[in-house]
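Exercise 3.2. Students should predict the tertiary structure of the chain below and write it as structure tokens, then compare their answer with the key that follows.

Predict this chain's 3D structure.
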Amino acid sequence: MGHETPALPARDAETTEPEARAERFAHASDLGPVAAVLAARRDEVLDGWLAAAAVQPFHLGHVQRAVTDHMPRLYDALTALLRRTAPRSVAPEAPLEDPAVLTAAQGHARMRLEQGLTATDVLTEFRLLRQEIGRMLRAHLADAAPATDVVGAELLVHDALDGAVFVALATLAQRDAERQRLYEAAEAARRSRRSRPRSAIWRGCRWARSAWPAGWRR
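Answer key:
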């Protein structure tokens, strides 16, 4: 029996939620072939990503800084997610609802921002990973793999990487908000220090004057 194209899910209210759209559109897809390629070609994908990331302008002069544990963890978590939901009978999961995917994305974003990279730099790194995954699938995925299954798996992969980008931007916004809070607290403390000595000196002068003999006061 030939492969039957799964029917698209009904366009109901649930599909308007970004977090739910990819998993619903990937329903009844066999994610196994894509998951198998990503698992078998793991080192090639990550080596290709690292080579591309290391020559980006934001890593020049700091090549060792390009090395990270979080990107391999993100890749492994994504591959595990695909393998876990590979059978058609298993409903796909929203990538960012997977704790391992979310933790790895957050960890990578925080580390890069602490290293002084900008949001654009972090987004470029995720973009490079997407390109390496696409390159590997194009080179090693069997031509016989049904297009609907391949597209279903790619929907989840792209959704995971888009989610990682969202996490990076949210992490940057959180960091900037914390910096602003600390700046405002420091400014308030500085203004308080500037006003406190004058008040103390004025109070000291008033006390000393009150202690003078009556004939010395004017």
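Discussion points: The first helix runs from residue 18 to 25. The mean pLDDT is 81.
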